[in-house]
Amino acid sequence: MQENENQPVSRDHAGFPWKQVIGLLLSLVLTFLALWIAVGHLLPVQPTIAIIVALAIFQAFIQLFMFMHVTEGTEPVHQLIGILFGIYVAFAVVGGTIWILYYQM
Amino acid sequence: MAESTLSLDAKNRKNLPLEYSTEEGDLRIVGFWMFLAAELVLFGTLFGTYLVLKSHTGGGPTAQDLFKIGPVMAETLVLLVSSFTCGLSTLELRRHNKKGLITWLAVTIILGLVFVGLEANEFYTYVTHEGATLQTSAFLSGFFILLGTHGCHVSLGIVWIAGILIQLARRGITPVTARKAFIVGLYWHFLDVVWIFIFTAVYLTGWVM
């Protein structure tokens, strides 16, 4: 079975740390892009919030894949299920809260 | 179903990075991911609380009165770069380069201290110059609890990395210290992930609305 196969984990020997540098540069670009969109008041409030939240989620996934090696290990499916469940509960709490507030007004 | 790979024989485990080279280390790393999932839920509840309370300023200072772009961006950039240096320390760990690992972890600690200092200064400014304390309004209670919980996590991370540095200096890179250094790296990156959402949901949203 696929999930039981030994996951090859590349050994990073000498060389320029491309993965880390690209992760840093992408994070910086996304941070300043979000700042520019928010502080510049380029768009109405609702689209601005939607865009900066999307940028934050994208940046979180960069951290997860480029720095935290979430897909590594002998059976990464276990940690992926755990983290996905954590993300699901956090989104249910935050999203549900915002939803209730929205319909209260 | 085939036999679980957790019972891989020692020969196959030799192809994995050092932190995964023992079954115990492997299980502890998976266990730490479960802890991070629980932390995600903890911060989720604090974000939910903050978002409910943020419009309840009770006549006190509002987000736009308090938040200044300069100090907030300084904190954000310092923590972002510390996550990068922590990523480099994991890379040096994979290369079995003790000196590089210790150097990058030390840089991460210094950046962490700068971050905590900047955040303490931000809180101090709010309390002394703006009269914005934990008791001033529901908005500020939510703000200080969310940011304070994150700041406490960063402070704990600094002490934790310092402890790992002592072990690395004494024992070198072994399967045990490799696993510890890898796990503390996961913790540190997670704190940067939380900050990304604080930056977006607290500061950017505060400036937009």
From TrEMBL, chain A:
<dbReference type="InterPro" id="IPR050968">
    <property type="entry name" value="Cytochrome_c_oxidase_bac_sub4"/>
</dbReference>
<dbReference type="InterPro" id="IPR005171">
    <property type="entry name" value="Cyt_c_oxidase_su4_prok"/>
</dbReference>
<dbReference type="GO" id="GO:0015990">
    <property type="term" value="P:electron transport coupled proton transport"/>
</dbReference>
<keyword id="KW-0560">Oxidoreductase</keyword>
<dbReference type="GO" id="GO:0015078">
    <property type="term" value="F:proton transmembrane transporter activity"/>
</dbReference>
<feature type="transmembrane region" description="Helical">
    <location>
        <begin position="80"/>
        <end position="102"/>
    </location>
</feature>
<dbReference type="InterPro" id="IPR014250">
    <property type="entry name" value="QoxD"/>
</dbReference>
<feature type="transmembrane region" description="Helical">
    <location>
        <begin position="49"/>
        <end position="68"/>
    </location>
</feature>
<dbReference type="Pfam" id="PF03626">
    <property type="entry name" value="COX4_pro"/>
</dbReference>
<comment type="similarity">
    <text>Belongs to the cytochrome c oxidase bacterial subunit 4 family.</text>
</comment>
<dbReference type="GO" id="GO:0016682">
    <property type="term" value="F:oxidoreductase activity, acting on diphenols and related substances as donors, oxygen as acceptor"/>
</dbReference>
<dbReference type="GO" id="GO:0042773">
    <property type="term" value="P:ATP synthesis coupled electron transport"/>
</dbReference>
<dbReference type="GO" id="GO:0009319">
    <property type="term" value="C:cytochrome o ubiquinol oxidase complex"/>
</dbReference>
<keyword id="KW-0812">Transmembrane</keyword>
<dbReference type="GO" id="GO:0005886">
    <property type="term" value="C:plasma membrane"/>
</dbReference>
<keyword id="KW-1003">Cell membrane</keyword>
<protein>
    <recommendedName>
        <fullName>Quinol oxidase subunit 4</fullName>
        <ecNumber>1.10.3.-</ecNumber>
    </recommendedName>
</protein>
<comment type="function">
    <text>Catalyzes quinol oxidation with the concomitant reduction of oxygen to water.</text>
</comment>
<dbReference type="GO" id="GO:0019646">
    <property type="term" value="P:aerobic electron transport chain"/>
</dbReference>
<keyword id="KW-0472">Membrane</keyword>
<feature type="transmembrane region" description="Helical">
    <location>
        <begin position="21"/>
        <end position="43"/>
    </location>
</feature>
<dbReference type="GO" id="GO:0009486">
    <property type="term" value="F:cytochrome bo3 ubiquinol oxidase activity"/>
</dbReference>
Automatic annotation (TrEMBL), chain B:
<feature type="transmembrane region" description="Helical">
    <location>
        <begin position="72"/>
        <end position="93"/>
    </location>
</feature>
<feature type="transmembrane region" description="Helical">
    <location>
        <begin position="100"/>
        <end position="118"/>
    </location>
</feature>
<feature type="transmembrane region" description="Helical">
    <location>
        <begin position="138"/>
        <end position="169"/>
    </location>
</feature>
<dbReference type="GO" id="GO:0042773">
    <property type="term" value="P:ATP synthesis coupled electron transport"/>
</dbReference>
<dbReference type="GO" id="GO:0016491">
    <property type="term" value="F:oxidoreductase activity"/>
</dbReference>
<comment type="function">
    <text>Catalyzes quinol oxidation with the concomitant reduction of oxygen to water.</text>
</comment>
<keyword id="KW-0560">Oxidoreductase</keyword>
<keyword id="KW-1003">Cell membrane</keyword>
<comment type="similarity">
    <text>Belongs to the cytochrome c oxidase subunit 3 family.</text>
</comment>
<dbReference type="InterPro" id="IPR033946">
    <property type="entry name" value="Ubiquinol_oxase_su3_dom"/>
</dbReference>
<dbReference type="GO" id="GO:0005886">
    <property type="term" value="C:plasma membrane"/>
</dbReference>
<keyword id="KW-0472">Membrane</keyword>
<dbReference type="InterPro" id="IPR035973">
    <property type="entry name" value="Cyt_c_oxidase_su3-like_sf"/>
</dbReference>
<feature type="domain" description="Heme-copper oxidase subunit III family profile">
    <location>
        <begin position="1"/>
        <end position="207"/>
    </location>
</feature>
<dbReference type="InterPro" id="IPR013833">
    <property type="entry name" value="Cyt_c_oxidase_su3_a-hlx"/>
</dbReference>
<dbReference type="Pfam" id="PF00510">
    <property type="entry name" value="COX3"/>
</dbReference>
<protein>
    <recommendedName>
        <fullName>Quinol oxidase subunit 3</fullName>
        <ecNumber>1.10.3.-</ecNumber>
    </recommendedName>
</protein>
<dbReference type="GO" id="GO:0004129">
    <property type="term" value="F:cytochrome-c oxidase activity"/>
</dbReference>
<feature type="transmembrane region" description="Helical">
    <location>
        <begin position="181"/>
        <end position="204"/>
    </location>
</feature>
<dbReference type="InterPro" id="IPR014246">
    <property type="entry name" value="QoxC"/>
</dbReference>
<feature type="transmembrane region" description="Helical">
    <location>
        <begin position="30"/>
        <end position="52"/>
    </location>
</feature>
<keyword id="KW-1133">Transmembrane helix</keyword>
